[in-house]
Amino acid sequence: MSAVRDIIITGLLLGGIYALVSVGLSLQYGVGRVLNVAHGEFIMIGGFVTFWLWGSTIQLNALVSLLITAPLVFVIGWLLHSALFRRIMHKAPNLDVFEGQSMLAAFGLLYVVQNIARIIWGSQTYQINYLNTTVTSAQIPVNRLVALGVVIVVGVLFYLFLARTRMGKAIRSSAQDPTTAGLMGVNINSVLAICFGLGLAMAGIAGSLLSFVYPIQTSMGLQYTVIAMIVVVLGGLGSITGAMIGGVILGIVSQLVTYFQPTWTMIAYYVVFVVLLLARPKGIMGK
Amino acid sequence: MLVVFFALVLLPQYNHGYTVTLITDILRYATLTVAWVIFSGPTNYMSLATAAFYGVGFYVAAVANGPTPFAVAIILAGVASFIVALLVGALTLRLRGVYFCIFTFALTLLIQQVVMEVERLVTQTRGRFVESETPEVAFYAMFVVAVFTLAMAILIRRSRYGLALQSIGEHEEAAAHSGINVVRTKVLVFAASAVPMAMAGAIIATQRTYIDPGIAFSLQSSFLPVLMALFGGMGNLVGPIIGAAVFTYIGEILLTKFPDLYMLIFGAVLILAIVFMPNGIIGLAQSAWHKIRGSRRAAVEGGPNAPA
Predict the structure, then answer these.
(1) Domain range for residue B20?
(2) In this structure, are B271 and B176 located in the same domain?
(3) Which ipTM score applies to this complex?
(4) A277 CB near a chain B CB, below 8 Å?
(5) Are B267 and A115 a contacting pair at CB < 8 A?
(6) Helix H or strand E encompassing A244
(7) B160-205, pLDDT tens digit by residue?
(8) Which of B24, B50, B133, B193 could form a disulfide with B206 if both were Cys (CB 3.0 to 4.6 A apart)?
């Protein structure tokens, strides 16, 4: 029984983090049409900034550092979109070309970010020892429960932001039809840059949370990028709810497989991915 | 064209060491890029599975080179890759656009993981040693494969398959309605284009001597051909070759001058190339030509505001 409980709780946590990362990717692709293969690198950045603040003289609490990493990564994303992807978008003759070119640019970004991080932090593995005590009755470390709580809060806040605010409405309308949204007075360029920034901020938050749950290293990003891509396709490209559901499914699957054979998790993801794509090529929530 | 051909044939007679290795490398990327363009160029299906087939070549070489002659090992690599691509293609080519792209991207990582697992469980090792060949032998082998790839690309382009691919790229439903067996065409050409990729892998593996899944299935081999093709321009086959040559050479210089910063600079170059030259060298040359011609015409017609 306790094994089942562990699988569910850790699966939910991991699923929540995957969902967060994937919602970010989905936002970038669904609204901005940028298939950001460098997405995972900003998880790594989030993790390492948290680690760095925690290890520095101020010894910042790992949770408080969320308030720094999220805005920091948001600004990076906003700048990236304004300076890089917007330029590519305006030069590209059509959307297909833009998708290809922006993906390649994101691949370049992956190398740039990862190598800058490697120059700063090397390629060792680090871990933050934060709230690493277990709840007395269960064998679940407190930090996982805290991380799960943060994921849920962020998810709900983001949902409310999309559903209730003016900006959220602008984002949703741009996702549906950027041209018409532009005609209705939505400042598309600014919405796209904000979406890209928000997407990266999600990755940054996920990275901060991961840094005190799992060991981090500068090469960790790609793995999460792939997971996020799988989740996003699972849920239906561009669907925020789909990304959340897909993330939780993949998290539970990962813990189930890890329980039996830890090295097979990536393979299991892929099997889920293939089966679902063949059964429902447009994803769970796809139209 | 012929001059280049003979210059390459005679090269190892006069030059040894570095130049031969460099040209082999350029030929490798030219092969990968042209092979990538065979399928992805006309159809607009952006495949990121090049590294998967290239890596299959590595592993076939590790197993077969030694017990069988080098040439046989190369051919075996091609055959193995053809079969893998046939399976993958049959499974994935019903996907379109970005789905296909994501799928092939993940496929490379999946094959990498599976190979790693198999090695861990069966042979209980991380990497393998490959029977090595001299740089000259590798050069000639790569030269033959490159010529073979180019010939294949030209033949496919001129055949009914080439036209079929083109029409699939323009409008897939229309192509299907005009009697093209869309799935068969896509799968067959996809599989054919995987053959030279694995052959190139098998040859380069003999120059590496030690390989592991991380080296064999490095994502760089998936993205570089796309970049080179884009950079050179995909309208004809000369563009990708120029792209491959230029980028391999730049990469080589970076690698020797700044070994630590190589990947960082590579990423930056990639971004800059896309931002400032989205249509590649050929596109850049064309637009420059248009400007020159345009301004000349404008001068003839007597006005700077004349339409260019």
Answers:
(1) 2-277
(2) yes
(3) 0.81
(4) yes
(5) yes
(6) helix A240-260
(7) 888 888 888 888 888 888 888 888 888 999 999 999 999 999 999 9
(8) B133
